[in-house]
Design brief:
Protein name: Exopolyphosphatase
CATH class of the largest domain: Alpha Beta
Keywords: Hydrolase
CATH superfamily of the largest domain: Exopolyphosphatase. Domain 2
Strand order of the largest sheet: 8-7-6-9-11-10
Shape: elongated
Enzyme class: hydrolase
CATH architecture of the largest domain: 2-Layer Sandwich
Strand content: 15-25%
CATH topology of the largest domain: Nucleotidyltransferase, domain 5
Pfam family, one: Ppx-GppA_III
Structural class: alpha/beta
Helix content: 40-55%
Number of strands: 14
Domain Ppx/GppA phosphatase C-terminal: 310-479
Length: 495
């Protein structure tokens, strides 16, 4: 990316939606604008994991305003990330459909580990470069992330299902606070976080940093009250807790630096922070300036090149971990991409779609070490459940569907086939797997694939190709029959 390029990151959190716009300059991102709206999406999530119509309307209205600000931005300049609430919501697709329409850009729902990676990336890139061992904690609306790393590289990442919105709703209904309620909330938080002691062993870090809303609010109140600036201390937390209990209600608490939009979730966030201090026996924590949205901005720069794209490194790691035959994976990749380039609709974004098809091709055999016969099923399961840094949950699911549909009947992916782009990707992957069946380089230069809108793929071979490759020609006939039960057709011209 060139210096001066504007980049934007959106964090669709459980409590607030945030938009950060920055300008790339000499490898760094300079803030241009920051917008935040308290949406309380997580507060609209029912016990049966359904977002309320009112919560969805609040989210759509906010994203429409953010979308207006982002008019003129290209897709490569924007990344929108959704976290715990939309991970949990059973009706998230209903929300995301309209949300992406009013925003004008895709929204990535990321897994907990990916959220943690982005948080660490955002925090550390706003800290001085150092080799210190850093423990980063982020108390969000419905999840809390804990990350241990050295310098810019995260080493251990975990996400726990508790946050300021969830804990405030559960333990401080109506905003009422008593000493008993606060103690109960702290104990409950420690019970959820207790397993973190096995992952993050005390003494394995040099400094602790806390990011995002809860940490920012606590640090601001403590600084204005005369505590060490930019720090959260055990003494300071006890001081806030004492005043909150004495007030008896979050609306009655009078502390300089406490903003009205933070009041409804203060007690929940405070109780979780107190639990972390007690669990890890901390005495002080640094307030971090960076957060998930800054990490997403850095990720946009990394994604501009395969050399720095985290997803590329993840694909290589998965291929190595599951002992993929590298030569065969490369054959299938090259064949699939070559065919896809012949049917892709002219669009500057097709390079990115080709990249995702290439990843699916390189990973199409990751399930083979479990079962050769059902390798496609096992591979799809792995992709749907693996912690894959850099990938959003929808990206991983699309890769899993391509791997699942690479062979056999197409009924198992019939819903996805309603998407023309997916149908093109899957057609090219299936043909590539078929043509590489002998685990040798196929004579793909003798084949030409065309797409005839709106539903026909036409594969033409050079004269004599079918005679020279009778097994491949027979497999293509079987493939054409398989597509007859779908909205798409494969027409063969094999002279």
């Amino acid at each position: 990316m060139q210096d001066g390029t504007l980049l934007a990151a959106l964090d669709l959190g459980s409590n607030s939606f945030r938009l950060e716009i920055g300008r790339l300059q000499a490898g760094h991102i300079e803030r241009v604008e920051y917008l935040k709206e308290t949406v309380r999406l997580g507060a609209g999530l029912s016990e049966d994991k359904l977002l309320s119509p009112a919560a969805m309307e609040r989210g759509w209205a906010c994203l429409a305003r953010f979308g207006e600000r982002l008019r003129g931005f290209e897709r490569r300049q924007v990344r929108a990330v959704a976290t715990q609430t939309l991970r949990e919501a059973r009706n998230r697709d209903a929300f995301l459909g309209r949300a992406q329409q009013v925003l004008g850009f895709p929204i990535d729902v990321v897994a907990g580990h990916e959220e943690a990676r982005l948080i660490y990336q955002g925090v550390t890139h706003l800290l001085p470069q150092a080799d210190e061992r850093r423990l980063v904690v982020d108390i969000g609306g419905r999840s809390t992330e804990v990350i241990l790393g050295r310098g810019y590289r995260p080493q251990r990442m975990e996400s726990y299902p508790l946050g300021s919105v969830a804990w405030s709703t559960r333990y401080f209904p109506g905003g009422r606070v008593s000493e008993r309620q606060l103690r109960l909330a702290v104990v409950a938080a420690k019970a959820v976080l207790d397993e973190a002691l096995e992952v993050f062993t005390p003494g394995s870090w040099d400094a602790v940093y806390a990011s995002s809303g809860t940490a920012g609010a606590l640090a601001e109140m403590l600084t204005l009250a005369g505590f060490p600036p930019g720090m959260i201390t055990r003494e300071g937390l006890d001081w806030i807790a004492d005043r909150l209990v004495r007030a008896g209600h979050v609306e009655q608490l009078r502390l300089e630096g406490l903003k009205d939009d933070r009041r409804p979730v203060l007690a929940g966030g405070l109780s979780i922070m107190m639990a972390l201090f007690e669990l890890f026996d901390w005495h002080e924590v640094h307030r971090a300036q960076g957060a998930l949205r800054q990490g997403a901005l850095v990720d946009l720069i990394d994604r501009a090149s395969d050399a720095t794209d985290v997803r590329e490194r993840t694909v290589r790691w998965l291929a190595q971990k599951f002992a993929v035959d590298a030569a065969q994976a490369e054959r299938v990749r090259a064949t699939a991409v070559r065919l896809f380039e012949q049917v892709a609709t002219p669009d500057p974004r097709n390079g990115r779609f080709s990249q995702k098809l290439a990843w699916a091709a390189r990973l199409h055999e990751i399930g083979a070490h479990i079962s050769h016969t059902d390798a496609h099923k096992h591979g799809a399961y792995i992709l749907d459940h693996v912690d894959a840094p850099g990938f959003s949950l929808p990206e991983l699911h699309r890769l899993s569907l391509l791997v699942l549909g690479q062979r056999g009947k197409l009924r198992k992916v019939e819903d996805a086939l309603a998407d023309e782009l997916f149908a093109k990707q899957l057609m090219c992957l299936r043909l590539a797997v078929l043509l590489c069946h002998a685990r040798k380089d196929p004579a793909v230069e003798a084949l030409m694939l065309r797409f005839v809108p709106r539903s026909t793929f036409r594969l033409q071979a050079a004269p004599g190709w079918a005679r020279d490759y009778p097994q491949s020609a027979w497999l293509l006939q079987e493939e054409a029959h398989a597509w007859e039960r779908t909205p798409w057709r494969l027409q063969l011209l094999l002279p």
